[in-house]
Amino acid sequence: MNMKVMYKTILSEYEQVFEKIDQDNVRDFIEKVKSYHRIFLIGVGREGMATKAFAMRLMHMGKEIHWIWDDTTPSIGKGDLLIATLGDGQIGHIHYICERAKAQGARIYVVTGSPSGKTAREAADNVLFVPAAVYRGTDEVVSSIQPMGNLFEQCLFVLFDMIIMIIVEETPDLSFEKMSARHRNVE
Questions:
Q1: For residues 33 and 51, what is the distance between their CA atoms, to the nearest angstrom?
Q2: What dihedral do alpha carbons 83, 87, 88, 93 form, nearest 10°?
Q3: Range of the domain at 64
Q4: N or C: which end of the chain has fewer CB within 10 A?
Q5: Where in this chain does the record put each SIS domain (predicted)?
Q6: C-alpha span between 115 and 22 (Å, rounded)
């Protein structure tokens, strides 16, 4: 397959995913993110990278953000939100973290391509379903010519960026200029 055919096919896959995403589901996720000041995030691999990018933008918005794997992460508890991205909905150590955070009173929001997965079913208070092909996923999603979870990971990155843009647009005292002022300045 030549590159031109490949990129057009991949763009078509993106379109199919974003057409299938439940807008009310995304709206609920946005409202939860807007309502919490202290947000903890967790993810691994390429979907973890998309989640880290989301965490960075949330920090730029002025929220108190903590990455679960960081040694400086404080305790989690009531009044905190944990956003866990796990494509197949059942990554063992992420499931464990979700259970522990829930036991401490945190709200758990799982972002997944497989809402039938164990963590989405058993530990999540809310689930954001991104219907894109995911590695080891079992739910009905948009299939992909790409390997493993590429489509899910790419759509996750774009969806998280769009969510940030929507929150900025809906928040009167927030702007990209204000966010830019919080960007790391020791580069």
A1: 13
A2: -50
A3: 25-69+77-168
A4: C
A5: 29-173
A6: 13
